[in-house]
Amino acid sequence: MGTSVSVDGQITAFPLLRGQKALVTGANSGIGKATAIGLGRMGADVVVNYVADRDAAEKVVQEIESLGVRAYAHEADVSSEDQVVGMVSRMVEELGTIDILVANAGLQRDAPLTDMTVDQWHKVLDVNLTGQFLCAREAAKEFLRRGVVPEVSSSAGKIICMSSVHQIIPWAGHVNYAASKGGVLMLMQTLAQELAPHRIRVNAVAPGAIRTPINRSAWDTPEAEASLLSLIPYRRVGEPEDIARAVAVLASDLLDYVVGSTLYVDGGMTLFPGFATGG
Ligand code: BGC
User: Fold this and answer.
1) Long-range contacts of range 49-52, CB-CB < 8 Å, 24 or more positions apart?
2) Which residues line ligand 1 at a C-beta cut-off of 6 Å?
3) Has residue 274 been placed in a domain?
4) Fewer beta carbons under 10 A from the terminal one: N or C of the chain?
5) In total, how many domains does the chain have?
6) Cα 21 to averaged position of ligand 1 atoms, centre (Å)
7) Whose CA is nearest to atom 2 of ligand 1?
8) pLDDT tens per residue across span 180-238
9) Is residue 277 part of a domain?
């Protein structure tokens, strides 16, 4: 067993997750797509969850299958209890179990406080926070039922919550999103405390500014990108594969003793870059 990262930044040739079954929510685009493919590259079979755009999800499935592992697409709204229950029970039927949950599905509905509607508030909390709760609950039931299978993994299951630097950085004009990610931090830590005695590892990955459709306006003109880069000490915008690699390693037994942690993958965005010259 060995690891290597090729020059194009892709994970290559090491089935660290061989035999494991992963569910990635919101996997038809952006960070979720790269993560689903990254886990497939590490040897996992992958369920590609999506809520809209079946064609995009099927393309991700084809790309994962071309790596020699199993995959299928499953439409479900993570904020719907029935749909999440159905998604996890189908996965147990079709793939036998679930070893890794990447609770990634998330969205933004931005507005200044005084313009924000209660629908915008609820939509973001429902998907970003309730969605992670529901997926974690259903995955944990299966982890507890099955227990540890030492040939597959040292732990009974791994939950990786996709958070954000905004779990700790306040963000004016995005109070629904920042509140949802602050909630994800405490959801993750509480579940980690509750489930660790059962050998279930719960952790989070907190991306900074990653080049995906969710924040296109922040990087798709030179002026916007220059302003964004002033918030990133490492002076590059992140790529979805930066997050995929972090998730894959966190899900593997290489990090078996990491429980209840947040791995910030943000080029230093959480280092208060304004203080590099001020304060
Ligand atoms: C948000 C992006 C934003 C980034 C850094 C992410 O969680 O979804 O829109 O660019 O945080 O602020």
Assistant:
1) 49/23, 49/24, 49/25, 49/73, 49/74, 49/75, 49/76, 49/78, 49/87, 49/105, 50/26, 50/74, 50/75, 51/26, 51/75, 51/76, 51/77, 51/78, 51/105
2) 108, 164-166, 208-209, 214-215, 218
3) no
4) C
5) 1
6) 29
7) 215
8) 999 999 999 999 999 999 999 999 999 999 999 999 999 999 999 999 999 999 999 99
9) no
